[in-house]
Structures are given as C-alpha cells and as structure tokens.
Amino acid sequence: MSEHGRRRRHRTVDRVAWILEAAAREPGGVTVAELARTVGAPASSVQDLVGGLAATGFLLERHGRFRLGPAPHVLNLIAGRVVPQISQAELNELSRVAGTPVLLTVRVGLDAVHLARGGEDEIPRLLPLADEHMARPLLRTAAGRLLLAFTDEAERQGLLDELARHDPEAVAEFRRALPAIRASRISRSEGLADPEVSALAIPVTDGPVVTGALVLTHRRRGRSERLRLDRAAARLLAHIQERRM
Question: How many other C-beta atoms are found inside a 10 Å radius of the C-beta of residue 80?
Fold first, then answer.
C-alpha cells in the first residue's frame, strides 16, 4: 500500500480468497483438483495453499474434500466484528412495511454481498443474488455506494484508487455524489447494475457505525418508481426509529 493508501490485488491472496469461497459454497466440500480449476492454478500450488489453510483451521478435510473451517468465525469473535443480525422474520416484516423486497447487504472488499432478503422479488432472476450471496460491484449498486460512502475515509480512498484502475468514470461520478449520500444517508441506483432495476439503500447501524445496508428494489419504469421507493424508505425509517424508542 502506497503513502496514498492505494491497494493492489495480490495473486496469492486472491487464490486463498477464491479457495475459501469455493469451500464455503459446497457443503460437501471440494477437492484439490476442483479448486485448481476454480482458481486457474497448478494443482501442486493449490495443494500447498490448501494444506496451509487446513493446518490453521480455515479449511477442514474429510475424505479428500475440503470445506470451510471455524477459523474465519473465530477471528470475527476475537475482533468483536459486528455483522448485521436481522432475522428472517424481521426482514419479512421490514418488507411488509416498505411494500417492496428488502435485501440485507454488507461490503466485502470491493464488492457488495447480499446476506439475506425479505419479501418476494418481482424480478425472479434477481433472487439468486441474495440466495446465493453473489458479489456485486460496489459502485454499480445502491448498497455498495452507501457502504463505501460510510467506510473510514483513509480506507475509502484506497478502495477508490483501486476501483479507478478499472472504472474511472464510475469513481469520478461517485466522488461527486459522495457528499449528498453522506448528508442524506440514502443511496440510489437507477439501472446502474441492471437496466430494469431501481434500488434505494439505507444504513444498518450499530451505534454510530454503519455495519450494513437495507436495499429496497423495484422494477424500473420511470420517475414514479423513484417516488415509490422514497415513500417506502420513509415508512421503513419511521418503523425502525419507532422500534428503537
């Protein structure tokens, strides 16, 4: 990382992250050969990485197949990391109040990842994004833009430096929008990730810290949908405030 906080990807770190995600996505575990195909690396290199991850509890092995171990969870406990905890019943209630589907989302590196959803989405092809926790580009989603806006300033600068290498126009547009997002605590996406989707994100907080985002979505049809999402967000914010009192 440079003096300006610039972050660059590292091939070995990327491979470790891909291995852990692949193992997490397969309840029955994955073999070294399968992992080698996933990361596009020689099996011998992957074997070394997998062995080290298993030795430190990041992976568990059973009959030659590897699944995610307990170490990531333990590290979160040690760090006191706050991950938004909203039950399925609560998400369904928030969706009912808003009158739209609701997605609970967090930032993972340079991506936004949906943890869970409440309500039924009127665009069925979007369901796997939440149900399979698919990563979405930060600057192309309402949640990602909100979460980036409330990331620590030094870390945000480093992330933007990295993102600018691939999407400088999106970074420039986000920088212009940043003061308004922070002031309103609302972020929008009008077709940024999907031309058919309007989305609006509001923060999930633990005290003063933004730990996640709640995303309201609707099929994009014009200005009327923006107003509908505004009203839905107002109802949701009022409901959340009432529950805290």
Answer: 6
